[in-house]
Amino acid sequence: xxxxxxxxxxxxxxxxxxxxxxxxxxxxxxxxxxxxxxxxxxxxxxxxxxxxxxxxxxxxxxxxxxxxxxxxxxxxxxxxxxxxxxxxxxxxxxxxxxxxxxxxxxxxxxxxxxxxxxxxxxxxxxxxxxxxxxxxxxxxxxxxxxxxxxxxxxxxxxxxxxxxxxxxxxxxxxxxxxxxxxxxxxxxxxxxxxxxxxxxxxxxxxxxxxxxxxxxxxxxxxxxxxxxxxxxxxxxxxxxxxxxxxxxxxxxxxxxxxxxx
Length: 261
What we know:
Blueprint: E1 7-11, H1 16-27, E2 31-36, H2 39-50, E3 56-60, H3 66-80, E4 85-88, H4 104-132, E5 135-140, H5 153-173, E6 178-185, H6 191-197, H7 203-213, H8 222-233, E7 244-247
Parallel strand pairs: 1-2, 1-4, 2-3, 4-5, 5-6, 6-7
Helix pairs in contact: 1-2, 1-8, 3-4, 4-5
């Protein structure tokens, strides 16, 4: 598996999975542009990715803004000459609460970042890939792309939509030599999970509960998601298209089993 000479753009590049994927792609030979709203976090991630020896660029952007998305795509083309890989990874979980009482503004913001952001990334990168006759897009879905989870109605709806966008795009651009897939992380030890568990009265117990969801009995690591994303971006995955790839320790693929008392 190699990404030697490929130009990759990673949104949400300052976060745990985004940064880890930058490292994985850098080690595989890619030139990497990290995109994030948080400039400080972005610079720290860039330093980490640069330690692989990869060429690294950064761009602050709001993925829900068409102008910002056009901007980061234009910057990538100017820096690298093209875009071979897009990891559409930026996303937020938002507040946890019952659907019947959910804040409307929060719902709109989550949908803007998690769905519109993915759409805009596809909208502005796919023409480049179609024109060159090659490319790979990986969108970040979730367990919530396949299951209904309580307390996160906007996030749940958004991640279902990400999988729909993935499948729709894959069906359109496959004849042009472009692949579009989604990665569906399970319970991963990231700042987003910490944000969710911190909202419970007993955060430690909430973390233990998250660990117990997987048949493997542990949280995943950002690097484990990154490894799958790098594979999907590479020519080693040349026949993988239009799928939601669960990286979750078996949560989606198995029935829950009783734990011994």
